[in-house]
Automatic annotation (TrEMBL):
Its main location: cytoplasm. Residues 24-309 form the Gcp-like domain. Binds 1 Fe(2+) ion per subunit. Signal peptide: none annotated. This is tRNA N6-adenosine threonylcarbamoyltransferase. One of its GO terms (molecular function) is tRNA N(6)-L-threonylcarbamoyladenine synthase activity. Belongs to the KAE1 / TsaD family. One of its GO terms (cellular component) is cytoplasm. Required for the formation of a threonylcarbamoyl group on adenosine at position 37 (t(6)A37) in tRNAs that read codons beginning with adenine. Is involved in the transfer of the threonylcarbamoyl moiety of threonylcarbamoyl-AMP (TC-AMP) to the N6 group of A37, together with TsaE and TsaB. TsaD likely plays a direct catalytic role in this reaction. The keyword Metal-binding applies. The keyword Isomerase does not apply. Its cofactor is Fe(2+).
């Protein structure tokens, strides 16, 4: 009997559903929420409402694309934490109802563990032990993975996440939310060595990005006072310089983590791993340090249900199921 799992992701502002059969992803449907753009960030209440509107058509389409009948499902999985509680509740209630109606096991999944396991959806896959740099809008972590379900966070941000650093810098430049991809786009035509932003000296494997945001704020104030159209005239060089600094901060800690653990199987995950500068840096540093590097396909980098499905597959094989009275939580360690 094949193991067919329907997985639902609704932790932030993307409603996603995926179907996985014996570890092979058959569909991954993602509905974004344009409603937040005008507010410059995700509005939690609007996100919950949009999830409610999207979830039935998204699940329907995921099942259809996978050519899967409800009766063929072996389990239903959902993102349990971390995330916006209202958003998580929509996905968890839906998944619980479905598991109850179909009389199949329910599997709660940790979103950050799932981001890491996005690296195991396609071949080639990292060998264990491996290190994963997970960089998203809410998290920045270096994770030591001994097996699919045995992971330890060995470094993390003490303030802003890398994605937040991108988004907040973009906001200071007058770019719309989420600004990360736009900084990336402008950076392609810019000189990354034109402006130098400070690198914080944080001990160990932890990160800090809040100082960078302040440095950029003062830098822009100073230069705008001298030249009103400073940002417009230099947008490519400013974005390239900001991107280089964020990427360098990330890569220096990853090099340190690899040296300290002796691990050279290196992967990245999370929305920021879509960044072209980070992808290129991973290849360059990888060649320098003899790493085997892994980067998930673009659609598995940002929030998606395929990574929840992949994690659920491993949990199913390990018999790790959740009771029907389990609750989602906004924050949780893994
Ligand atoms: O993992 P994700 O989709 O959602 C969270 O769980 O946070 O990550 C979203 C983050 C946002 O901060 C977004 O600006 C950033 O990933 N991001 C990028 C790029 N694409 C997405 N940042 C820089 N360059 C990109 N190309
Ligand atoms: Zn995420």
């Amino acid at each position: 009997m094949p193991v067919n799992i329907l997985a639902i992701e609704s932790s932030c502002d993307d409603t996603s559903a995926a179907v996985i059969a014996d570890g092979k992803v058959l569909s991954n449907v993602i509905a974004g929420q344009a409603v937040h753009e005008q507010y410059g960030g995700v509005v939690p209440e609007l996100a919950s409402r949009a999830h409610q509107e999207n979830i039935v058509p998204v699940v329907d389409l995921a099942l259809k694309k996978a050519n899967m009948q409800l009766a063929d499902l072996s389990a239903v999985a959902f993102t349990q934490s971390p995330g916006l509680i209202g958003s998580l509740l929509v996905g968890s209630c839906f998944a619980k109802s479905m598991a109850l109606a179909l009389d199949v096991p329910l599997i709660g999944v940790h979103h950050m563990q799932a981001h890491v396991l996005a690296n195991f959806i396609d071949d080639p896959q990292p060998q264990f032990p491996c290190l994963c740099l997970t960089v998203s809008g809410g998290h920045t972590q270096i994770v030591l993975c001994e097996s699919p379900l045995k992971m330890t966070v060995i470094g993390e941000t003490m303030d802003d996440a890398a994605g937040e650093a991108f988004d907040k810098s973009a906001k200071l430049l007058g770019l719309p939310y989420p600004g990360g991809p736009l900084v990336d786009k402008h950076a392609r035509d810019g000189n990354p060595d034109r402006f130098r932003f400070p690198e914080p000296q944080i001990p160990g494997l932890n990160f800090s990005f809040s100082g960078l945001k302040t440095a950029i704020l003062y830098f822009l104030q100073e230069n705008r006072a001298k030249q009103a159209d400073f940002v417009e005239a230099n947008i490519a060089d400013i974005c390239a310089s900001i991107q280089l600094r964020i990427v360098t901060i990330l890569m220096n800690k990853l090099v340190k983590a690899s040296k300290e653990t002796g691990i050279s199987e290196i992967c990245i995950a999370g929305g920021v791993s879509a960044n072209s500068g980070l992808r290129k840096a991973l290849e360059t540093y990888g060649a320098q340090h003899n790493w085997n590097v892994y980067i998930p396909k673009f659609e598995y980098c940002t929030d998606n249900a395929a990574m929840i499905a992949m994690t659920a597959h491993y949990k199913y094989l390990a018999g790790e199921f959740s009771p029907l009275d389990t609750v989602p939580t906004a924050r949780a360690a893994f």
